[in-house]
């Protein structure tokens, strides 16, 4: 299980404008040294906020990551909802949704 | 000298980032309460403002997560988030290295803390500072309680941290103000964002105002998660502030459930002996 590592990669992106720039320039290179599954790597590189949410990425990390990637608030909330619709419930962590998706 | 001010307030990023989304009357009452707190803080003439916060992975990660941490730097910076998103410009915030060191050495007589000579403030500190010290003219000493990633310090240890900060404040030659900041019930950063358990909040705030230690520390994390969401773990900051002045009662100057800000927005103060 490498959720820890995908969260660590997001943590590093979130911490400085230069890291955001490096990530946006070449996201695959940014995460090359992290121990990620193919699914995690694809979600991080895209970025697929919905998939990252379902994988169990901490919500605070994901909120800042979404903002750094230009997600407006409603788009960010909707991306998490769509993630659940497409991939099912949140698989790990504390930030599971409690209500229905519709 | 001693503790000259103690209070609690909310820090949800929506308070600055989406201030125009809220009901105008509710937002106006919240603004008025922040302003009242700002005036009370200034009137207390503090030499430093200790902010007991619940940060969100701006500095600490699961590779090395302190239960409690205290800043010990000449200055800090923030916000770590995109300033355009939070609507707070990025800037340097003054610290007080020597006073931090004195406080930390005294706190360590009772409670183990990590110290930090570097700290990037996220919305958890920047939103309160933006409202309470908009000119950033009071040196800030940040304190963090891990409220994000289990295992977390139990509530009785958060209360003990507050007691230790109080004893440390009594031993240094400075006027110390403290503001704890966190949510009560809330489910931030999920599609449930905006959900608020108002009865639970009001019960918690009643316990806080009575400064009823046993009632405050009686919540289990399982109960808090069930009834107040993962954001509810941030009650640790309020519990720590209660520990600062265990014989003082509190007063709530504002409680406004504002779904657009993802929490019941709260301003409260402890009535310290004059």
Can you offer a commentary on this structure?
The complex is a heterodimer of chains A (102) and B (274). By secondary structure, chain A is mainly α. Chain A has one domain (3-87): Protocatechuate 4,5-dioxygenase, Chain A (Orthogonal Bundle). Helices cover 64% and strands 0% of the residues of chain A. The longest helix of chain B has 20 residues, at 24-43. Chain B is globular, with a radius of gyration of 17 Å. The model of chain B has no long low-confidence stretch (mean pLDDT 96). In chain B, helix 4 crosses helix 6 and helix 6 (155-171) packs across helix 10. Chain B has one domain (3-176, 198-258): LigB-like (Protocatechuate 4,5-dioxygenase, Chain B), CATH 3.40.830.10. Chain B has helices at residues 14-17, 24-43, 83-86, 97-107, 123-132, 155-171, 198-210, 213-216, 221-228, 235-244; strands spanning 3-9, 48-53, 68-71, 75-78, 91-94, 114-116, 140-145, 176-181, 250-258, 263-270. With 274 residues, chain B is an alpha/beta fold. Chain B has 10 helices and 10 strands. The interface between A and B is medium-sized, with 28 and 30 residues.
Please render the helix and strand layout as text.
The complex is a heterodimer of chains A (102) and B (274).
Chain A: H1 3-14, H2 17-25, H3 27-30, H4 38-45, H5 49-55, H6 59-68, H7 73-87
Chain B: E1 3-9, H1 14-17, H2 24-43, E2 48-53, E3 68-71, E4 75-78, H3 83-86, E5 91-94, H4 97-107, E6 114-116, H5 123-132, E7 140-145, H6 155-171, E8 176-181, H7 198-210, H8 213-216, H9 221-228, H10 235-244, E9 250-258, E10 263-270
Parallel strand pairs in B: 1-8, 2-7, 2-8, 3-6
Antiparallel strand pairs in B: 1-10, 3-7, 4-5, 9-10
Helix pairs in contact in B: 4-6, 6-10
| Count of strand segments of chain A | 0
First and last CA, distance of chain A: 30 Å
In angstroms, what is the radius of gyration of chain B?
17 Å
Which CATH architecture of chain B would you pick? 3-Layer(aba) Sandwich
Structural class of chain B: alpha/beta
Mean pLDDT value of chain B: 96
DSSP, total strands of chain B: 10
Residue share in helices of chain B? 25-40%
Shape call of chain A: globular
Q: Fraction of residues of chain A in helices?
A: 55-70%
Q: Biggest β-sheet of chain B: count, sense, barrel?
A: 8 strands, mixed
Unreliable segments of chain B (pLDDT under 50, ≥5 consecutive)? none
The biggest chain-chain interface is: A-B, 28 and 30 residues
CATH architecture descriptor text of chain A: Orthogonal Bundle
What is the total domain count of chain A?
1
Please trace the helix and strand order of chain A, writing H or E for each element.
HHHHHHH
Number of helices of chain B: 10
């Amino acid at each position: 299980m490498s959720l820890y590592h995908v969260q660590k990669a997001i943590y590093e992106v979130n911490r400085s404008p230069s890291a955001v720039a490096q990530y946006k320039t070449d996201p695959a290179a940014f995460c090359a040294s992290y121990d990620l599954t193919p699914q995690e790597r694809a979600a991080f590189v895209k970025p697929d906020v919905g998939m990252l949410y379902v994988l169990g990425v901490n919500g605070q990390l994901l909120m800042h990551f979404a903002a750094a990637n230009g997600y407006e608030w409603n788009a960010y909330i909707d991306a998490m909802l769509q993630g659940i619709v497409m991939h099912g419930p949140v698989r790990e962590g504390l930030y599971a949704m409690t209500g229905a998706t519709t | 000298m001693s503790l000259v001010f103690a209070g609690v307030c909310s820090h949800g990023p929506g308070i600055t980032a989406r201030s125009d989304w809220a009901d105008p009357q509710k937002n106006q009452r919240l603004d008025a309460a922040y302003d009242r707190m700002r005036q009370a803080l200034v009137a207390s003439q503090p030499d430093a403002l200790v902010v007991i916060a619940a940060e969100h992975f701006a500095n600490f990660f699961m590779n090395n997560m302190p239960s409690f941490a205290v800043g010990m730097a000449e200055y800090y910076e923030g916000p770590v988030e995109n300033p355009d998103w939070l609507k707070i410009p990025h800037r340097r915030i003054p610290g007080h290295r020597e006073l931090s060191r004195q406080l930390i050495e005294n706190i360590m007589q009772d409670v183990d803390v990590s110290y930090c000579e570097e700290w990037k403030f996220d919305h958890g500190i920047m939103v309160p500072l933006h409202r309470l010290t908009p000119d950033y003219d009071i040196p800030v000493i940040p304190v963090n309680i891990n409220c994000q990633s289990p295992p977390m310090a139990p509530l009785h240890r958060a209360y003990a941290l507050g007691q230790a900060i109080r004893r440390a404040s009594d031993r240094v030659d400075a006027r110390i103000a403290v503001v704890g900041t966190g949510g009560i019930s809330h489910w931030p950063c999920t599609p449930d964002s905006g959900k608020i358990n108002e009865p639970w909040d009001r019960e918690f705030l009643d316990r806080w105002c009575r400064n009823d230690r046993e009632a405050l520390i009686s919540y289990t994390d399982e109960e808090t998660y069930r009834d107040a969401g993962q954001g509810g773990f941030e009650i640790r900051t309020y519990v720590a502030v209660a520990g600062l002045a265990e014989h003082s009662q509190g007063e709530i100057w504002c409680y406004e459930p504002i779904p657009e800000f993802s929490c019941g927005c709260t301003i409260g103060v402890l009535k310290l002996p004059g």
